[in-house]
Each structure stands twice: as C-alpha cells, then as structure tokens.
Amino acid sequence: MLRPSEREGIREAWDIHKKHTLSSSIIDKMVIRDNELAFITQEDGEIPIIENYGYGLYYHDCRYLSGFHIRLMDVPPTQVLSSDERGFISTLIVTNPEMKDCTGTVIAKETLLGIMTTTIPGCIQQSHTIRNFNTFPVTLELNFEFDADFADMFTIRGIVPPTAGKVLPARFDGKKLYLSYEGEDRLRRNTIIAFDPLPTKVEGKICTFELNITSHGLQTINLEISVEEIKPGQEPERPVKTPDERINQIIGSHTAALEYCNNIPTSNNIFNSIMARSLADLNMMRMSLNGDVFHAAGIPWYDTLFGRDSIISALQILPFDAELAKGTLLVNAKFQSNSSDDWRDQEPGKIAHELRRGELANLNLIPQTPYYGTVDATPLFLILLTEYVNWTGDIELVKLLENNVDRALEWIDVHANMEGNGFIYYAVKSPLGIYNHGWKDSPDSISRSDGTLAKQPIAVAEAQGYVYMAKKGLAPLFRRIGRKSDAARLEREAEELKERFNREFWMEDKQFFAQALDADGVCDVISSNPAQCLWTEIIDQRYAKCLVNRIFRDDMFTEWGIRTLSSKEKRYNPLGYHNGTVWPHDNAIITMGLRKYGFIKEMSLLFTGMYEAAREFDDFRLPECFGGLTRSEYGIPVKYPVACSPQAWASGAIPFMLTACLGITPDALNNRLIINRPHLPSWLDNVQFNNVKVGNTLTDLNFRRVEEETLVNVSKRSGDINVLIKY
C-alpha cells in the first residue's frame, strides 16, 4: 500500500492527465457480452489507442484491452457493414481503398473484402477472412496492434486516480502475445492473445501477417484473446475454462430469450422487433454471483450488480421470466448489510447500491465493496418480493427471506427515518460517497426553483411511494405466514404515510407534488419524481388528475416521453443527466402508474411516444436516456453522448409498458388472473400472449383492437385459474 504522500503524487499527475486523454462520446459502438466479460469497440471494430473513453475489453472492472487497430498495408480498411445484433457475436465487413501490395502491384479499390466475426464465450474469438476478387494474386501485410492499460473503471470514468500498479512490457513467447500488469493489490492480470496461423513478425505489440492470396481466393487469420487474474499462490482465474461449451450455452440462452417473443406475437412487425431487441439485450445483461442470476445495470459504466437497477429490471419482465426475479432477490439478500460503516454509507438492513471487484475496490480506495448509498433499493427489494409472489405464489421464498424482510423494514422505520416524521431520508457520510441516493443520483439532480441544490438530509418523493407500496404489498404475505398483527401494523403505517405524503409534499400554489423535502423545506421544482408515485398508488385520488395534466404539458412532455425536469426550471438542460433528459425506465414506471389510476389515454400516449423513439434508435435499442428536446422541433430523438446502451432497465421499459396496456394483474395466491380495462394503441391491432404463467397455471390470451375497444379472448387454460376480465 502506498504512503499518503506517494498517493498524492499520483493524484496530482492524474489531474493533469485526465484533462487531455478522456473523450466524451461512446454513441457509435458495438457491444458483445458474456456474464462478466464485455467487449466494446467502435463501429469499425477497433479500440482507439489514444483518446479512448469507454471502449475496451473488460473483466472485473478492469480494462484488459485498451487498444486494437487493424491495418492492411498500413491503411485502415473501409467499413461497409457492422452488426452486434445478437449480443454475443458481432460482424464487420470491410473493403479496401486503392493501394499497392507488397510487390508494388496496384490494387483497385473495393476489390478485396474482409470479414471479421467476433464471439465472446468467456474470451474473444475472432476470425479475419480476406477475399481477393482481383484477376491476379496479391501479397499483403495485415497488422494487428494491441494495447492494454489495465485501468480500473473508476479511473476510466475520471473519478479516481490510477494506482501504482505497473504495466509490464509486451512479451511474445513464440506462440502467444502476453500483455501483463502487476497490480498494487498484488494481483497479476494478463491479456493473452493466441494466433492461428502464427504471425510472420512480432514487434512489441504489433503482430504482422504476410498473406498470399490467389485470384478469387481467401485467407483467414484467427485470434483468441483471453483474460486472467492471478492471486499470489493461486491458479489463474478466467471467465470460463471451456469456451466451446460456453458458446453452445450462450446460443441456447439467446434462443430461449427469442422464444419469449414467440410467446407474444403481435400484428406490428416493428414492435415485434423492438420486443425481440429488448428481451435479447436483457438476456445479454445477465450476470451471476455464486449461482444467483440477475441483470447487470448497463454497459460500459455499470456492468456489475446494482441493487436498484437489478430490482427494477427484474420487476419489468416478471410476466416473461419470474425466475430471474428470484435470483435477483437472493443475490441482493446476500449483500444486505448487517452493520454500520460510514465509508460505505452502510447501515443495518440496507440493500446494497453497487458492487465493484477491481483493483481500486481491492485496495479499499473506493467504497463500492459494496457501497450502500441508495435510499430506494431497500423498499424496492420488498416490492419485488411481493410482486414475485403475486406471479408465482412462492410463499416459501417469503419464509426464506423473512429475516431479510424484517431487517429491511427496520432500516426503513429507524435508520432512514432521520427526521422522525415517518419519511425516509438520505445523507451521505462517505468522503467518496454519492451525494444523492435516489435513482437521480447525480450531484445536481435535486434542486429548488431558484436553482439552489437540495441540502441533506433529503427525502425524495418517489422513495416515499416505494415504502408505501412495499408495506401494502407485504401485509397480505405476512397474514399468509401467520403474522396477522404485523400485517395490520404495516397497513396502518402505509395509510399514515399516504396521508402525510399528500399533506407535506403537495404544493398548492403549483398544483403538483414537490420533488423532495430537504433540510430547508420543500424542493419545489416540477420534475418526474412524483409521477413515479402513481405506480406506487400513494397519490391521493383528488390530486391525481392535476399531476397527470401537469406532466403532459409542453415543458414536461417531449412527445417522446416525460422529461426528468421541466424545461421551465433554472437547472433544465436537455442533455443534463437527470435535469431534462428522457429516461425510458422512468417513463415505463409512470406508464404503469397511469394504468393504475385509469388514465388510459395518457398511458397510450406515453407508450406510443416510447415505441416511436425505439423505432429511431439503431437496432431498435433504447439507451439509458436521451435528450429532452421536443420531437416536433427535431424529428428524431437526440442521443445522450455517454449513455449506457444496452442498459437493463431501459431494455425492460417496452415490455413493462406493454404489460401496463394489457392491464394484466396476477394473483397467484388466490388462483386469479385479473385483466382490467385492456387497451391497445392504434398502431397495435392484435397481441397474442401465450403461456402467461401465474402460479403453476398457463393461459393463452388474445387481445384484439376493435375500433376504440380492446377485447380479450382466453384461448387456452392449463390448470385451475380464474381469469377475470373487466372492461
């Protein structure tokens, strides 16, 4: 471990370095991923060796490949196609500009065709095939240049200076190229590149192949890029040991994800493609820890366990895959806090915010080991449990997690109740902690109409709704396991919270709810935070119409979706992370809330806006967020430069919105499936939802739009279930 003076020297150098090397956009990228390994390149398949922000090959928050260039006769090829559509395989097709080969023969442009196929079965496997369409043979030099900085993700993001670890000189042993790093945490990290056939020449990190390709012939170069961590005295740890077995598992998993789409064919082929993209991306985002499967949050910045994100994305796809919710509950329960630690903003009973496993985490130079700076993951954990049981009837999981539930409730009632008034608050204690602990967790995301920032402790509106929903949902489960008095207490506390919330958060002068309460009173901006409270049903019915009318005014509704902050507020910025952008998951939650309060027209309008936004993005992939600029002015959604894409809860937004429109409510414990006022928008005439699983029953449902009405037909039923349809 370095002395403080040595660490300060690194920090000073870092302050200079980061100003000159970090670019600011990863809009155009290809992403393939498998469990804990992610490969992010430019559209041309390359990783810039300089001016590199987020591109690279990542494992355990470490960048094992920070540079990858391909040159044919020292010239970059011309890209003609790139695709990462399936998530585990990417394809790049290139051709040549006019050039001379090694013999001086002129090769006309577009007479060579290069095809690069990349798969990620726990390593990177690439095949590079060059075809010669000339009437004569060609002799070519193909160069691959590699680089590996082994930077921690928090260093790449410009948050924390690098460690004193050492990048070792590149080494070629006659068969493989080794790029290695001795970490300050005493771990050896290796990037190992194998070739078939072997390079003609290796100079440092540049590997050269001489290709002799006959007329209309071809030649293929294969690469395999592996990563490994080695702890002192231990065997190397790799993502997988058997890539051939893993690729078969990945293909099977991808096929299964697409089968979910086959269970919900609709009359709109574009919408079918959006759903397929959403579910395929969620499948790609799966990660496991000790056998528990969940969604990582987003690529590249948040490719790890995030309590809040994993829970919300699991909630979004419960009708399609309830088992993932179980894994999400189990993994979050295992990281639930048992103690207090200010460095990690940790308190007993709290569900974790973020887990990191890179060098900075190993050295305890960042608090994400895990970090607990989240006010909403704990009530969301309880909500996921109740919703999971509603779909599955798995009361045994409630019994298994009963102690976790009690500790979560105690954290809500004791530790988060900082002001003693029944609301849950947050206040950062860690010197490297996050200032805001709601889902809008950037430093400037909670404010007042005069532009000043909220002062801690802060109680954000939506978190109060989450607590209300959690307690209301847990009460019937407690009755099922014999805790009737606790059930009654939870119901009483929920109703008291609802009354208090509608009294304290309501702004009579603005006819809207406050974004938050803080140390100085009311944060009176118009924001999307209270709109999420519709989903939780904490909003008193007498205020619901005012809230809904307000969020659909021009300063909040972009025609694509609801902004995070009104365009009339001082801190509004259409490209501000939480101060004016549009977030798909935020809009999906609001959509479900509109359904619950009976605002069917507005629900359909929001669903339509997000569907039409998805149509405009590459491969129909909704990003983490996009610009809050109005559709009527710009015509297409404006990209946010460093948005994660894919992002799990963005991928879950369209499936969640569809569920809202279908009006499906499960009640597995009472063998019921309730369909309340289904509504298909004008662009969706028919939805066939097969194999809807509630408890141990399966039901096929057909939703059909007839003029302005949506009719439902139960076409198949397996098991004892009562389907109740309310028009």
Automatic annotation (TrEMBL):
It comes from the Archaea. GO terms for biological process: carbohydrate metabolic process. Residues 32-223 form the Putative glycogen debranching enzyme N-terminal domain. SUPFAM superfamilies: Six-hairpin glycosidases. Residues 458-607 form the Mannosylglycerate hydrolase MGH1-like glycoside hydrolase domain. Gene3D superfamilies: 1.50.10.10. InterPro entries: 6-hairpin_glycosidase_sf (IPR008928), 6hp_glycosidase-like_sf (IPR012341), GDE_N_bis (IPR032856), MGH1-like_GH (IPR054491). This is Amylo-alpha-1,6-glucosidase.
